[in-house]
Write a structure and sequence with these properties.
This protein is α+β, with helices and mostly antiparallel strands and 421 residues long. 42% of the residues lie in helices and 19% in strands.
């Protein structure tokens, strides 16, 4: 067992230990509340799928709420006890989280342990959740005139790595072809204690919490961690482009630039840079492209923050009186300014203050604390919950300039034009 020596006035300290079956446990006591939050992170996401079987990680996220066995409804039991729960899947991880009254900790742990103890999905539940995911695909991707851009940009940017398909899956046809056997195989491969991180945050007696964890999780078999080697994406040294012609409310443009993995030191400069470009109404893209020049009705720039090397994505909807080329020129004009000049002291202080406020806000609340701690542990360093803000504070205008030069390459990126048919 280890207890961190670091601390922050807004973030509780944690204890970390492992069960013999490989489950990683982190306890974060916060007795100024009457609530308890539980997060279970499974070290699997859509990058663990194979072409033609994509979407199973996200589908299984849905199925896990039916995996407590006959007559046991995870949602209803928790809600009747005054709690709530949800989950989300990314390219790299799947996280399940619950919050409720502190005196319901054992119930939450019992429910979580039950659904990791074996595959209990019925054929009826499988078909029901498969239909739910198919409807989600229709609503978010097919019925949205811009919805398929994520499929198109990932396939354009990645030719080797499994990031080439979105978390939802390649297509409705692929999702429809998934079977119960696919779900069961995925469960046994990735849903076991040695591939999971359990975080408990909130009001608790630490010794009692450990007894609950031992009681409900220690007897579950460890499982076997499959060796996972993901293909390395070759450096992008060309401009890959795609034009989509269709009926649209407005034309749109999308760029994707390769960038580093989440644990690379450059991550903080790139993350900060995209905030300078597109976070809030004072950001450069918003204030210049949308407000001043009125080229765009919407504009954004963000990073995918993936475990393996990810993407910087720019997207903009073009106001009808302007052209995609004008938006593209405006984009490069702003980027080149950042590549040739450092941010002045006044704006630097403003951006740093905004960054610190946003970071601290993201740490507030038990659920955020549990999710952040589980993710930091997944990255290999749970102390990041205390030290990451300092990583941002160590940035300088020169480092942001260097990041703009290094990662906004004019000879190696992807672009998609959505043009009016």
């Amino acid at each position: 067992m280890s207890v961190t020596s670091l601390h922050h006035p807004l973030i509780p300290v944690y204890e970390k230990y492992h069960l013999p079956n490989g489950l990683t446990v982190l306890l974060q006591q916060e007795n100024q509340t009457n609530l308890i939050a539980v997060c279970v992170l499974y070290k699997t996401g859509s990058r663990d799928e194979s072409k033609g079987k994509t979407g199973i990680a996200h589908l299984f996220e849905h199925l896990m709420f039916s995996n407590c066995g006959p007559g046991i409804d995870f949602d209803s039991l928790l809600q009747n006890a005054g709690g709530d729960c949800n989950a989300f899947t990314t390219t790299d991880t799947t996280q399940y989280y619950s919050i409720g009254p502190a005196n319901q900790l054992e119930l939450i742990l019992a429910l979580e342990a039950n659904r990791i103890s074996g595959f209990h999905i019925s054929k009826k539940d499988f078909k029901t959740q498969q239909r739910v995911v198919l409807e989600e695909f229709s609503e978010m991707y097919l019925n949205n005139p811009y919805g398929m851009f994520s499929h198109e940009i990932m396939a354009l940017a990645y030719k080797q790595h499994p990031y080439q398909w979105p978390v939802i899956g390649e297509s409705q046809e692929v999702l429809s072809a998934l079977t119960m056997q696919d779900a069961e195989s995925f469960y046994h491969d990735y849903y076991h204690p040695s591939n999971a991180i359990l975080v408990i945050s909130g009001k608790m007696d630490l010794d009692q919490a450990k007894r609950y964890v031992d009681k409900h999780f220690s007897s579950i078999k460890a499982g076997i961690n499959k060796p996972r080697i993901y293909p390395t994406e070759p450096p992008l040294s060309e401009i890959r482009s795609l034009t989509v012609n269709k009926q649209l409310p407005e034309e749109a443009v999308y760029f994707a630039f390769p960038h580093c993995k989440r644990t690379d030191p450059d991550f903080y400069a790139i993350d900060f840079l995209t905030d300078v470009l597109a976070e809030g109404k004072s950001s450069l893209f918003y204030s210049i492209l949308k407000k001043e020049k009125m080229l765009c009705s919407t504009v954004d720039c963000y990073i995918t923050s993936t475990t393996d090397p990810g993407l910087i994505i720019f997207e903009a909807k073009v106001n009808p009186q302007y052209s995609i080329k004008e938006v593209e020129s405006g984009f490069w004009e702003i980027v080149r300014q950042l590549q040739h000049h450092t941010i002045d002291d006044h704006n630097w202080e403003k951006y740093m203050n905004k960054n610190e406020s946003a970071y601290l806000f993201s740490q507030l609340g038990l659920m955020n604390q549990a999710l952040n701690l589980s993710y930091a542990e997944w990255l290999g360093n749970p102390d990041l919950i205390f030290t990451e803000l300092e990583n941002y504070k160590q940035l300088t205008p020169q480092k942001i300039k260097e990041a703009a030069i290094a990662y906004f390459s004019e000879i190696g990126y992807c672009k998609i034009y959505y043009r009016q048919a």
